[in-house]
């Protein structure tokens, strides 16, 4: 098979050639866009799921849908070591520029840009030297007394209110997309919830669309008790058999090639239906096939190549971030679950390692902050990465 024509695309956040199994979420967002544009109340949306299920891809697709309807959009990726002001300022600057092309009053655009600049400049420390101060690249003077108090909660409410009103001026709306939502700091989470609460009460045409790991609802509710009523949580999971087959068959058939039914069976078993793995095994199988159609033997021959790529780019890069104590905890989880994608009891991990549960808390909490594990239910911990337990057990046997 010609490797140049290989249609599969395993990559972080990279759109697969066939976005299978996500029609329900896309249709639901169409309704959100319609309702918000008509001034009807609608909750913001948060996509939750394990790594490799396509949350980032879907987030980008939702952004494209909003843009096609003339909405102003801005996207950020939260980071545990950075606050919200600076990346959000850049994202909202993009959203305002989207709206500016349709707005008939340049002075109104400049007014909101001034508020945005005032908000952005508060990202600088008060004791920072002039040459070290970040400049947001907005060519209007900063507003005075609006979104510049230094209190992120007050400032964000004021800023998003003004940006939403700009969307209302042109008869559309604004979508703020936040990836890796679990990495927002406590103060930023609280501010975002407060802003969404204020905007939902006023009916302003602005929605926040977040994406993150399964424990995002817990992160939000720990900040504001009313957060569970602010957001509509949509769980993004692995593909069922029909959708996984479509994700493989459609791009192959567009290249006027084929794959045998038993090869599809094996590919699904190996990938578990996780979109990232489907792409990885599909790409390797295409490259391994000497002729059309792809056979079950081609998939089996290709499997080590796909697994080697996953071991380096998907599993290994995350494992390397863990300290020796954290790796010990991860390996214990893998052994207790026998490599399956199931939660492990925190108490059982302590017994397995012959340690007191309290002595393992620092390692567990650090792994959660690094996004390697999450609390699936009280007293239980699970991997955020599918097949990670299997990878760890395989690694231990080498």
From TrEMBL:
Protein name listed in UniProt: AAA ATPase domain-containing protein
PANTHER family: ATPASE DOMAIN-CONTAINING PROTEIN, DNA-BINDING PROTEIN-RELATED
Naturally occurring in which organism (per UniProt): Haloechinothrix alba
Pfam families in the cross-refs: AAA_16
Record lineage: Bacteria, Bacillati, Actinomycetota, Actinomycetes, Pseudonocardiales
Domain of life: Bacteria
GO MF terms, alphabetically ordered: electron transfer activity; heme binding; metal ion binding
Keyword Iron on entry: yes
Keywords: Heme, Iron, Metal-binding
Record PROSITE patterns: CYTC (PS51007)
Span of domain Cytochrome c: 168-357
Region described as Disordered: 1-20
Keyword Heme in record: yes
